[in-house]
Amino acid sequence: LAKRQAVTNPDRTIRSVKRQMGSNYTEDIDGHKYTAQELSAMILQKLKADAEAYLGEEVTQAVLTVPAYFSDSQRQATKDAGRIAGLEVQRIINEPTAAALAYGLEKDQDHTILVYDLGGGTFDVSILELGDDVVEVRATSGNNFLGGDDFDERIIDYMVNEFKKQTGVDLSKDK
């Protein structure tokens, strides 16, 4: 829905709000200023509604994931978004830890894995050790302002420039 909305109504479409968690960022929509937490809560409310429709029962609790390098204020902002969405946040876990859980702790032997997480707005890499039903983060690093959206922008800029070279038409002002 958001991808379609972004094409037809870019001024009313929010993207990469996770980058703004824990900051003083606000977005003005129809004269109302929304914080990153409120915008994230809207996304969580949609996910909550989808989960409830699928499960056929009310969802009241959640475990939320964040990039491994998120600060305490960013983690708290994420918890706040969950609360605003009507969820009791049981725990905040690092996205690489969630990936390790999906990979499987029940493996027969200890593993050291590299988790490369390139999201829409963020990028991080973590080295994790898995063993004895424990996930231990050995190292992590990331960039809160580098992600798939940035690659998309670079590709769009390249294509707009190539189109202009070939046709003389400048699409850079086109929404």
Structural write-up:
- By secondary structure, this protein is an alpha+beta fold.
- It has one domain (2-167): Nucleotidyltransferase, domain 5.
- Helix content is 39%, strand content 27%.
- It is built from 5 helices and 7 strands; from the N terminus they run H-E-E-H-E-H-E-H-E-E-E-H.
- The strands form 3 sheets. Strands 5-6-7 form a 3-stranded antiparallel beta sheet, with helices on one face. Strands 1-2 form a two-stranded antiparallel ribbon. A two-stranded parallel ribbon has the order 3-4.
- The two termini are 18 Å apart.
- The mean pLDDT is 88.
Q: How much of the residues is beta strand, in percent?
A: 25-35%
Main-sheet strand order equals 5-6-7
Instruction: Tally the helices.
Output: 5
Order of helices and strands: HEEHEHEHEEEH
CATH architecture: 2-Layer Sandwich
Spans of at least 5 consecutive residues whose pLDDT stays below 50 are: none
Topology, number of strands: 7
Work out the helicity level: 25-40%
Q: Give the tally of structural domains.
A: 1
Measure the end-to-end span. 18 Å
Kindly report the name of the CATH homologous superfamily: ATPase, nucleotide binding domain
CATH class category? Alpha Beta
Looking at the structure, the CATH topology is Nucleotidyltransferase, domain 5
Sheet with the most strands, sense and barrel status: 3 strands, antiparallel
Shape annotation: globular
Task: Find the structural class using helix and strand composition.
Answer: alpha+beta
Question: What Rg, in angstroms, do the CA atoms define?
Answer: 19 Å
> What is the typical, i.e. mean, pLDDT?
88
